[in-house]
Amino acid sequence: MSVAQRALRLRAEVPAEVPHTAMVMAAGLGKRMRPLTATRPKPLVTVAGQALLDHVLDRLKAAGVRKVVVNVHYLADAVEAHLASRRHGLDVAISDERSLLLETGGGLVKAAPLIDCDPFLSVNSDNLWVDGPADTLRLLASHWDDRRMDALLLLVPLARAENHGGMGDFHMDREGRLRRRARSRVAPFVFTGIQMLSKRLLRDAPEGPFSTNIFWDRAIAEGRCFGVVHQGLWFDVGTPAAIQMTEAALQNV
Questions:
Q1: Rg of the chain's alpha carbons, rounded to an integer?
Q2: Stated pTM of the model
Q3: Which residues contact 156 (CB under 8 A, 6 or more apart)?
Q4: What is each CA distance from 249 to 51, 233, 243, in whole angstroms?
Q5: Is residue 163 predicted with pLDDT exceeding 90?
Q6: Most buried of the four, 50, 65, 98, 179, by CB within 10 Å?
Q7: In DSSP terms, which residues pair with 140 in a beta bridge?
Q8: Using one digit for the tens of pLDDT, what is the confidence trace for 166-207?
Q9: How many Å apart are CA 252 and CA 49, to the nearest integer?
């Protein structure tokens, strides 16, 4: 059996149903991407001829997602206009944070009434990934176990986190449960910005802006935060310099 045939077979063997709704995080200020974000929001920065947001929407649509909830704050009108002109065959709902940027956790809580499935996907809009042998989002969904999980994070090995300058985020045990990197230590896995969440995770949320880390820490303490290793490529496109490096790498894909 050829490599291509094995890849097609593996895709066929990942039958899991992907949640039909995804939260797309698009409200951030994009400070690390300056000066490109002085006049446009980071999700609309172009990489390999396409806006980062469009890369994400195309992959969501290909995996079977039908609706996206997109939060907006910085240069919100530009994001909304872009979504209106390029809907990608998706139903789009806007979670408006113009009056107050709520960060990742607060953004999820505000958007929750618009998210009409449980569990659901949450994806950072500045993400750029290439599938491995199986569709990445279907692979993630195939590992979901509602009895045991409130959060399932897609991780990439630190050694394969392209353009990433950090020290890793998580350790993972044999069952896939996660624990945090210890201070001043290296961890083997980096969070990609792609995750599958239960609405149970959003219970007892604080008021105002806060990070998803609050939810993750509780899920870790309860043994309900798990990880899956990404089989393909993933790029940290957080700075202008990373764009050129990412485009060069994609030419060889």
A1: 17
A2: 0.90
A3: 189, 190, 192, 229, 230, 234
A4: 17, 10, 10
A5: no
A6: 65
A7: none
A8: 889 899 999 999 999 988 888 999 999 999 999 999 999 999
A9: 15
